[in-house]
Write a structure and sequence with these properties.
By secondary structure, the chain is an alpha+beta fold. 28% of the residues lie in helices and 23% in strands. The strands form four sheets. It has a seven-stranded antiparallel sheet with strand order 15-12-14-13-17-18-16. It is globular, with a radius of gyration of 22 Å. The structure holds flavin-adenine dinucleotide. The site of flavin-adenine dinucleotide (FAD) has 34 residues, from strand 3, helix 5 and strand 10.
């Protein structure tokens, strides 16, 4: 598609109003500014407003609204569905607003709306502190937190959004609001789960926790033939995990890492990634239980490492520039049928980079009440299953979509009743799916959407439709 080009005289007021740069299709850095993590996203906005302050965000929103331009908001640019960019509209780009300041006494971090996880992790770790986030450090704090935020620390400290104290948000009508459990509590509830629908968050304030700066990590790669036995053993581990540990099971091709024999590089199999946050003994105990009675892993590695290194461990296999698609589901448990579904489908993927991740959601994940936030999913113990299609070419990525969908469908009998998927693990956002994600919380969200964004200005997301307006009010755009 050819980019819509706004004549310079139309862009002049925006250039005048913003401290940050305004990037249009004729500018040399346009292609860089419209690039997203998923190389399959190729959209051409008319203008990208590279905001450097809350005032810039207010001005960019006003400019777009006065001219009827469609609005998209970019944090880290990671969303595989490309929800942070549009064709022919204005992008509010927060990537320059990435400052993180930590108050070690108060154990609190102030985080700009465009910061990346790695910036938050590093700033907190400098004081022996941390807050739960995701597993790839170049993911945006904003999109991740506004939908949930799951990672290595979820069993210990909950979701990223459970650790939010407040946010500063620019609403569709240009008002700048600080919300927390005391101020604008309804908005704060909505922001924590369906947050991309309610405005542009310019600052997050997170609660931080003390964390041993060194974690103990083990990686065990098993042959594909062993997958059923490994999954059954993982089920036993999940039934009694120590609160200071976590275990991810990943169906993947062996990484070309130094501890993997060269002849095994890129061969398909199943890996178990185990972490202890409280010393090497817990890892030894856990991996003893993992390995007892199983065939020996083809490759294994155990090492202490800084927590921030754990947070960057899988950055490289998830680098920018790949084509991607994903579907996630919750699983009540690793039942026999779920194990069989994963075991059956794992060998059928085409791209060596496509993978399936199982992540335990219990412990700290269950410490927050269901209704305390708008998070899409109940707080009963479960697993998060992410089926991710990643490939270096569009053709190979397309070839794995049926694989993703078939495995997702086969797992559905094991999904908990009345809750479906984690919003940040879904790349298809049709209305039915969004309703299924938020379940019984959807109607309250729709009421709040009608109150805070009645025209559906923020609609490049898992979209909550504003509750029906009073008779005579025009319908919001889709
Ligand atoms: P963007 O693409 O910039 O934005 C995503 C959405 O958020 C868009 O709708 C956008 O409009 C909105 N948005 C962005 N910034 C703001 C803002 N400041 N205010 C309001 N709305 C905003 N999730 C996990 O929970 N745990 C993981 O471990 C994890 N790992 C991942 C690894 C990879 C490689 C990828 C691609 C994704 C991963 N995710 C994970 C999913 C991730 O949380 C989502 O893709 C999330 O949307 C990314 O946020 P972002 O800010 O980078 O995205």
């Amino acid at each position: 598609m050819t980019a819509v080009t706004l004549p310079p005289y139309l862009l002049a007021p925006l250039r005048h109003a913003l401290d940050g740069a305004v990037v249009a299709p004729d500018d040399p850095d346009y292609d860089d500014a419209r690039r997203r993590w998923n190389a399959g996203i190729d959209r051409r906005p008319a203008v990208i407003a590279c905001c450097t302050s809350t005032a810039d965000v207010v001005a960019a929103l006003a400019f777009a609204q006065e001219r009827g331009l469609d609005i998209a908001v970019r944090g880290g640019g990671h969303n595989p569905a490309g929800t942070s960019i549009n064709d022919g509209g204005l992008v509010v780009d927060l990537s320059r607003m990435n400052e993180v300041t930590v108050d070690p006494q108060a154990k609190r971090a102030r985080v700009g709306g465009g910061a990346l996880l790695g910036q938050l992790d590093a700033a907190a770790a400098a004081h022996g502190l941390a807050t739960p986030a995701g597993t790839v450090s170049h993911t945006g704090v904003a999109g991740l937190t506004l939908g949930g935020g799951m990672g290595w620390l979820t069993r210990k400290f909950g979701l990223a959004l459970d650790n939010l104290e407040s946010v500063e948000i620019v609403l569709a009508d240009g008002r700048v609001v600080r919300c927390s459990t005391e101020q604008e509590p309804d908005l704060f509830w909505a922001v924590r789960g369906a947050g991309t629908n309610f405005g542009v968050v310019t600052e997050f304030v997170f609660r931080l926790h003390e964390l041993d700066p060194v974690v103990h990590f083990g990686f065990y790669f098993f042959a594909l033939d062993e997958r059923r036995d490994v999954l059954r053993r993982a089920r036993e581990l999940y039934a009694g995990l120590h609160p200071e540990t976590t275990v991810f099971v990943v169906g993947l091709n062996a990484p070309p890492a130094p501890f993997v024999p060269p002849e095994l590089h890129f061969s398909p199999g199943l890996a178990v990634l185990a972490v202890s946050f409280a010393g090497p003994e817990l890892l030894t105990e856990l991996t003893g239980r993992l390995r007892a009675g199983l065939a020996a892993p083809l490759a294994a590695m155990e090492t202490p490492m800084p927590y921030v290194a754990l947070q960057q461990l899988i950055d490289e296999p998830n680098a920018w520039g790949m084509h991607a698609y994903e579907k996630g589901t919750y699983l009540t448990s690793l039942s026999d049928t779920a194990i069989e579904a994963i075991a059956e489908h794992l060998p059928r993927k085409n791209s060596p980079l496509s993978h399936v991740i199982l992540m335990p959601l219990d412990g700290g994940f269950c410490a927050t009440a269901d209704d305390a936030t708008s998070f899409g999913g109940t707080r009963t113990p479960k697993l998060g299953a992410f089926i991710i299609d990643v490939a270096p070419t569009a053709e190979l990525e397309q070839a794995d979509r049926p694989w993703v969908r078939a495995l997702w469908d086969t797992l559905q009998p094991d999904a908990p009743e009345e809750e479906s998927s984690y919003v940040n693990g879904v790349a298809d956002y049709d209305d039915a799916r969004v309703r299924a994600i938020y379940g019984r919380k959807y109607d309250r969200l729709a009421e709040l959407k009608a109150r805070y964004d009645p025209q559906n200005t923020f609609h490049h997301n898992a979209n909550i439709r504003p509750a029906l307006p009073a008779a005579g009010t025009p319908n919001p755009p889709a």
